[in-house]
Amino acid sequence: MERNAVICSEGGRKGAPPPPRRDTYYWPDAVAYAREYGEEENPDYPYYAGDGGDCTNFISQCIKAGGIEEGYDWNCKRRPFPWRLLALINSDKAWDPTRYWTSAPDSFTFTTVLLGNRFIAIDCIDEVTNSIASYGIRPGDLMYFENATGIHHAAIITDIQNGEIKYTQHSYDDVDIPFKSFKGSDFRVYIVLMGGR
């Protein structure tokens, strides 16, 4: 079976999507944030290391740093008093993020359908080099990893050199991980082309 990168628009969903939001995304700021906090947590946000992972919370912080504004559907707000007292037990309980902020599959929907960004589906690591040039992949674009159970992880592209993508992530906090080092036999990676291009 021949595998090819496929580009989709309007989130790849049937039916009419809601009109996309019109936020301005400045990818250098998103990448700078990712590099600064890729190996540590930002104390101004919750850190979900033990609660299913912090990957999507981290990329939400990155794209917010890149100019995407919080709204009713995508935000990470502190809980009001007296709920904030839960922070005495667990500091992350002081926060009330939306599912689009913290869930990888919901974040994919947010960035493609609600923000109106196109995405590329890649089924084989060998497709990456051709896809970079063909689709204009750049730092600041997002990566969503899918296996047999669905989308389960998110990261941000922080560098591209010599046809190689490097990404930064949380859950396994690291900066500039070479995509070619990704180990997985049955996977798909969606690369969201941020910035409405």
Write a structural description.
The protein has 197 residues and is α+β, with helices and mostly antiparallel strands. The chain is built from 5 helices and 9 strands. The chain has a domain at 21-118 and 148-173 and 189-197. It has a 7-stranded antiparallel beta sheet with strand order 1-4-9-5-6-7-8. A two-stranded antiparallel ribbon has the order 2-3. Strand 5 (142-147) and strand 6 form a beta hairpin. Helix 1 (27-37) crosses helix 2. The radius of gyration is 17 Å and the shape is globular. It starts with 5 loop residues before the first strand and ends with a strand.
How do the helices and strands line up, and which of them pair or pack?
Layout: E1 6-8, H1 27-37, H2 55-65, E2 76-78, E3 95-97, H3 99-102, H4 104-114, E4 118-122, H5 128-135, E5 142-147, E6 150-161, E7 164-169, E8 174-178, E9 188-193
Antiparallel strand pairs: 1-4, 2-3, 4-9, 5-6, 5-9, 6-7, 7-8
Helix pairs in contact: 1-2
